[in-house]
Structures are given as structure tokens and as C-alpha cells.
Amino acid sequence: MKVLVINAGSSSLKYQVYDMTDESVLAKGLVERIGMDSSILTHKPTGKEEVTEVSEILEHTTAIRKVLDKLVHAEHGVLSSIEEIQAVGHRVVHGGEFFNGSALVTDEVKAKIRQLIDLAPLHNPAAIMGINAAEANMPGVPQVVVFDTAFHQTMPESAYLYAIPRVLYNKYKVRRYGAHGTSHYYVSQIAAEFLERPIEDLKIITCHVGNGGSLTAIQNGVSVDTSMGMTPLEGLMMGTRSGDLDPAIVPYVMNKEDLTLNEVNSMLNKHSGLLAISGISSDMREITEGMENGDPNSTLAFNMYEYRLRKYIGSYAAAMNGVDVIVFTAGVGENSVVLRQRVLEQLTYLGVELDEELNKIRSGEPRRISTANSKVEVLIIPTNEELVIARDTNRIVEESK
Questions:
Q1: How far apart, in whole angstroms, are the C-alpha atoms of residue 313 and residue 203?
Q2: For site-directed labelling of 162, which of 193, 245, 271, 289 has its Cα 20 to 30 A away?
Q3: Which residues hold Mg(2+) (predicted)?
């Protein structure tokens, strides 16, 4: 089966095409600036040269049509016809309490995704546009939705409820949902395979650390707690997000600065985190460079970031009464040698021993960076959320036949 994986944003659309006979990627690409007359389509067919096209793409239906045209193009294509695509998988950020796993798209499923727009106002409408656009271009082709929140639906009430009036949960479903669930699920599974141990026997802390970041405590193969909350704002300090803060700060600052709700929301999501503290960048690479050059604000930003990450690891070790495996993944987690070293050298109380030479090796493969004597296995595992979407899509479509 060949599967088209789509990750639709409000003005962008990422895609990959998988041949599920060997899980190989046939092509991938990105459509940017949807809604403008200078939209950009970047198409990367495997084994062929990358191509870029600038044209008017006013909505997602046109974007997908142009993607399909590229996939069957005589020179740049990887398919003989669109009929080769037997299923489409979509990333959807929020599944609420409706979905604890991936689902075949039906009218009922789409209606539930729409009901959750209040919980993901930027993301779920884009996902719906992607689903509708795929249906318009490939009528009759089965589609599957894979939710970022689904993996975390195993959390107990004691972890997902907030200590606020219960009526707010009963009426509006105010609770912790988490995010990055597809990534946390994937790297925890790979960790167990790498160590050749049953995942049901492991206590794993997965650190998905990129421009956005979250940690998850995984016990016996299921999520028991995660750092992002009702929205992706809670938890770690991130590239532009504040992470945890005293909620009383919000009305205080709004009053002092005469800010609207939209303005304070923008401040906390887009103008905080590493960017706010460093005054330089939200990119950990630039923060690290600034720190190495002696910039005090970059140093402070790095130290705050590392401290909060380390605190969460400690709290999740406490939540599970121990930890067997710590996994680093995503852009920062996979690539920042210095961040991993700073975090791990302060976790010796857990029995962590870092192999500094292994930590310096750069590789696109799962690898161990702890010593043979370390009581906790520390791994770097590149995440692959698109592959999880393709696998779930393939499985659910085959089961539905």
C-alpha cells in the first residue's frame, strides 16, 4: 500500500508518500504561504533533484492538487498515477477525550474534530481543511486521522485534572491533554526494541525537545503524565513559549500594561521563552553560540532552559518511583551535545552516568550515550511522527476492508 501523509497548517501543508511494503519514503515536500499569490511548493522526490515552484495557491484543495501533480510528473514524479495512493493519513493536534487512538475518517469523526476547535483553534481547523481537500482531490480514497493527544489518554485523573472547580471540567473539558503524543509513543517503542526489553517492564522518560518541547512519563508502555497541559503553553520553557508560570501573572500584567487577552496570549506563546530571556533568538543553536561567546543573557536563557528540563525529569522519576530509560529526541534533544551533558551530569543521584565521547557522536540512528555502568539507560532516538501516521493509516485501512 502507498500512503500519503499530510500535516496541514493554516497556511502550509507538509506531505510524505510512503510505500508500506518496505516503509520507504518515495517523496516529501512542503507547500508554504497558502492563501497568497506567491505560494511556494518544495518537492523532494527520493533519488531525484529537489524542485521548487512559486505560484498562486489560495486554499488547501489547490495545494493538494498541485502536490498530486508533482507526484505523477513525468520528470519529478514517483507514481505512475494518483490511483496508486490507496490511503491518506492526517496529523490532527487535538482529539480531546473522543479519541484514544487513530480513526478512519467518517462524517461523525469530522464532526468531533470540529467540536474540539475551541481546544485547538489554530490547528484543528487546518486539519479539517486538509481532510476536505484530500477528499475533493481523491474521492473514495480512505483517510485516517492520527491525534497528538491520543497517546496521553491513558493518564489517570490525578495527573490530568487541574485543582480548579470540577464544573469547569464537566462543562468545558478543562484538563491536561498533552501533545507530541505520536513522537513520545514512537521513541518509547524504539527504545524498548533497541534495549531488547519488553516495554511493559520499563519506566521511560521521553524528552521531545525542539522549538516546542514536552516530557512524558511512560510506565508499562502507557503515558502516565506529560508536561504540556490543556494547551501546548504549559510545561517546559520553550523557544518562544513561557512554559509554567504563576497564573496570577496574567491578570497582573494585563492590568499594568493594559493588554487585551489576545495580546497577553501572543506574549506568552510567541514572545517568551528563550527568545525573551536571551533577547537574541529562539534557536538553541544561536543561544549556545552566544553562551560560548560570553553573552550573559544567552547564558541565563540556556541555564533556565536546562534547569526546567532537569526538574521535570526528576519529577517524573518520582512519579514512577524510578526510571529505567531516558530518551532525548527532536531538534534540540537530538543535536545539542552541551544541553544533554549539562542535564545528565546533574542526574547522578538517579544513577545516571554519561559517556561524554558517545554523547559527542552525531548520527541519525538510535544510540546509547550512557556508560555500561549507568543504572539508567540514556538514549538518543530520532523521532519519526510521519512513519507512525503511515503505519496507523495502513493498519486501520487494512482492518476496515
A1: 12
A2: 271
A3: 7, 385
Residue 233's closest CA among 201, 181, 271? 271
Percentage of the chain modeled with pLDDT above 90: 93
Burial of 218 (0-12, 13-18, 19+ CB in 10 A): buried
- Tell me the pLDDT tens digit for each residue of 79-101: 999 999 999 999 999 999 999 99
Whether 322 has a binding-site annotation, put simply, is no
To the question of whether residue 210 is assigned a binding role by annotation, the answer is: yes
Q: Is 368 marked as a binding-site residue?
A: no
Burial 130-144 (b: 16+ CB within 10 A, else e): bbbbbbebbeebbbb
pTM of the model: 0.93
Look at residue 133 in the predicted model and tell me its pLDDT: 93
The residues annotated as belonging to the active site are 148
Point out the residues of the chain with pLDDT beneath 70. none
Q: Is 7 marked as binding a ligand?
A: yes
pLDDT digits (tens, 9 = 90+) for 331-344: 999 999 999 999 99
pLDDT of residue 94: 93
- 211 labelled binding-site residue: yes
Can you tell me which residue has the cell 543521584? 349
Q: Is 101 annotated as a binding residue?
A: no
pLDDT at 202: 98
pLDDT of residue 122: 75
Instruction: Determine the Cα–Cα distance for residues 229 and 179; give it in Å rounded to an integer.
Output: 8
Do the annotations mark residue 209 as ligand-binding? yes
- Rounded Cα distance between 32 and 41, Å, is 6
Start-to-end C-alpha separation, the chain: 13
